[in-house]
Amino acid sequence: MRIIKKILILLAVLAVSIAIVYFGFHINNVHVEGTEIYTEDEIKNSVFTRKFSDNELGFLIYNKIFGINKLPFVEDIDVKYNDNSTVTLHVYDKTISGCIKYMGQFVYFDKDGIVLQSLSEHKDGVPIVTGIRFGDFTVGKAFDVDDESLFSAIMNVSQLIAHYNIDVSQIYVNNGEISIYSGKVKVFLGKKDMYDDQMTALSSVLKTTAENNIEGSIDMSNYKSGDKIILKTVKKDKKKKNKSKKEK
């Protein structure tokens, strides 16, 4: 009887201890900050997927052993333990450099050409690369391409677009020459290995054309650092005349 009594007492103490740990350290409040790609619920559902991960001690142990669960477009997540029931998740988004359209899906890649994810919808602000065929691809690996130099040039343009925060909807490739579409302006960049000079000069120009809804084209195929940028605008009167001719 004494042994049974001791076992029951031990079980009772163990049960109370577990209850104190679980309920005393249960995560009731989660604050998400930093991300511009995912919603708060998407981050929460990704991070707290493991059993008992809604407990601060369990969450801490899991993260130490396995690392924190991250979505494809997340670079890293910093966790701040505010108190026993509150944590703050600071999310660092990956830089999405662009995407290609493949079999009705949008395949997104980062600054190194590593495939991040394939989605049915197009994310705002991410340029679509057209005019070039990509080979096989696997999520987490770089695209398989025939022309490595052209691929590097595309990556260079996409990195600079992200760096200068330029609104570009499309990166178009034709016979090795690259053009970009920003708002109603088409820019001919030509065929080069690096486009740093062109994109540096374009950053402020394209922001101005976007703000003023200007339509036209810029030829920078032979551009050199310090050259003047010439914007050929499409005159509204000319457009109306062409439209009236078509109607006749």
Descriptive account of the structure:
It is built from six helices and twelve strands. By secondary structure, it is an alpha/beta fold. It folds into two domains: 26-93, Ubiquitin-like (UB roll) (Roll), CATH 3.10.20; 96-244, Rossmann fold, CATH 3.40.50.10960. The strands form three sheets. A six-stranded mixed beta sheet has the order 7-8-9-10-11-12. A three-stranded mixed beta sheet has the order 1-3-2, covered by helices on one side. Strand 5 (105-110) and strand 6 form a beta hairpin. Helix 4 packs across helix 5 (196-211). The longest helix has 23 residues, at 2-24. It is elongated and about 95 Å long.
Share in helix: 25-40%
Could you please say which CATH topology of the largest domain applies here?
Rossmann fold
How many DSSP E strands?
12
Give me the side-by-side strand order of the main sheet: 7-8-9-10-11-12
Mean of residue pLDDT? 82
Give the helix tally.
Answer: 6
**Poorly predicted ranges:** 243-248
The CATH class label of the largest domain is Alpha Beta
Morphology call: elongated
CATH architecture designation of the largest domain: 3-Layer(aba) Sandwich
**What is the distance, rounded to the nearest whole angstrom, between the alpha carbons of the first and last residues?**
107 Å
Succession of helices and strands: HEHHEEEEEEHEEEHEEH
Helix and strand content put the structural class at alpha/beta
Main beta sheet: 6 strands, mixed
Number of domains: 2
Beta-strand residue percentage: 25-35%
Compute the gyration radius: what is it? 27 Å
